[in-house]
Amino acid sequence: MVTYIDATNLVLGRLSSAVAKRLLNGEEVVIINAEKAVIMGKKGRIFREYKEKRELGSSVKGPFFPRMPDRIIKRTVRGMLPKDSPRGRMALKRLKVYIGTPSDFKGKKTEKIEAKVEGIAGTTYITVGELSEHMGARF
């Protein structure tokens, strides 16, 4: 069974942990509108932290940190899976993440996850799309 999740206004960490649990239970998950997921916190701090992650290691050996919104979400989910075990690797293969909504998924019914940002008043956040543009991605 394939689960379709629209990432619009969903907090990245909460979305990722919910998706990781589903993947480990054997579900296939498709995340659409990856660029509209949000990261909680102040803009400057978020930009600084992600810039530090990108600058770690060497350009040859890694670790490599993505710029594109779909890759950022997939990397975040990967961090919540036991990627070194066969179970975790198979779980990650069941995840598909897309920027925007591909024409194949236009009529599909998306599932709601309790990870929305509307319930948190007075907080600051940025979207994954804004972060990607700041790091130099073009999508």
Blueprint (SSEs and pairs):
Layout: E1 2-6, H1 12-24, E2 28-32, E3 38-40, H2 43-55, H3 69-78, H4 86-93, E4 95-97, E5 125-127, H5 128-134
Parallel strand pairs: 1-2, 2-4
Antiparallel strand pairs: 3-5
Describe the structure.
With 139 residues, the chain is α/β, with parallel strands linked by helices. It has a single domain, classed as Alpha-Beta Complex (Ribosomal Protein L13p, Chain: A), CATH 3.90.1180.10. 37% of the residues lie in helices and 14% in strands. It has helices spanning 12-24, 43-55, 69-78, 86-93, 128-134, and strands at 2-6, 28-32, 38-40, 95-97, 125-127. It has a three-stranded parallel beta sheet with strand order 1-2-4. The protein has a two-stranded antiparallel ribbon with strand order 3-5. The model has no long low-confidence stretch (mean pLDDT 91).
Short description:
37% of the residues lie in helices and 14% in strands.
Instruction: For the largest sheet, list the strands in their spatial order.
Output: 1-2-4
Write the CATH architecture name.
Alpha-Beta Complex
Overall mean confidence score, pLDDT? 91
Major sheet: 3 strands, parallel
What sequence of helices (H) and strands (E) makes up the elements? EHEEHHHEEH
**What is the CATH domain class?**
Alpha Beta
Estimate the helix proportion, in percent: 25-40%
Structural class: alpha/beta
- Give the overall silhouette: globular
Number of helices: 5
Task: Give the terminus-to-terminus CA distance.
Answer: 29 Å
Radius of gyration from CA coordinates: 15 Å
CATH superfamily: Ribosomal protein L13
As a percent range, the share of strand residues is: 5-15%
What name does the CATH topology carry?
Ribosomal Protein L13p, Chain: A
Q: What is the number of beta strands? A: 5
Return residue spans where pLDDT drops below 50 for at least 5 consecutive residues: none
